[in-house]
Amino acid sequence: MSLDPAIAARLKRNDAGLFSAVAQERATGAVLMVAWMDDEALARTLETRKGTYYSRSRQQYWVKGETSGHTQYVHEVRLDCDGDTVLLLVDQEGAACHTGTHTCFDADVLLVDS
Amino acid sequence: MSLDPAIAARLKRNDAGLFSAVAQERATGAVLMVAWMDDEALARTLETRKGTYYSRSRQQYWVKGETSGHTQYVHEVRLDCDGDTVLLLVDQEGAACHTGTHTCFDADVLLVDS
User: Fold this and answer.
1) Which of A109, A112, B22, B62 is deepest in the core (most CB within 10 A)?
2) Which domain holds residue A58?
């Protein structure tokens, strides 16, 4: 799958050809997870509306929920002002975090509300 | 300012010693911006409750709103499951984006809702 050249031209990638993707739950506004994409992962996400990322450690694409069943239906994708982060508005099936929590930010609070 | 060693031990930094920071507006849930931090930027943010980041291009710390007046009061900070992203829940004064929009994700929609 290839990415629309007009979109590809606006992306700013790191040295590994990657940029950040933030997945946010559409219904609740919860920030679920942050992962990496390359052009191909973004193209697949836009085409299939399934949250698709690139794993640096495994050096392969992964469709969120492919093994866990905790899929993401992607409603909307936005690129930020400097072109190095996309924001995905998703419907999250089950837990977004591989640890079983709803979001990847549930377990470790560094600073409590005041 | 130095970061609590117990927190520092849980961080996973990139080759440049940096990790991602996502700023989310507490009142609306809007994802405002994504920027970089190092240990010092996080320590300053935790200590002062002012969103403080590290600029790769300028190679210096910046306190959000220091020049624009568009400050961030940080209510809460959370670390994600793999330790490479922090989520800041903030009160955003004025526009979060340097372009003048409320968030950095307002201008460029790659995929519309369906």
Assistant:
1) B22
2) 5-92
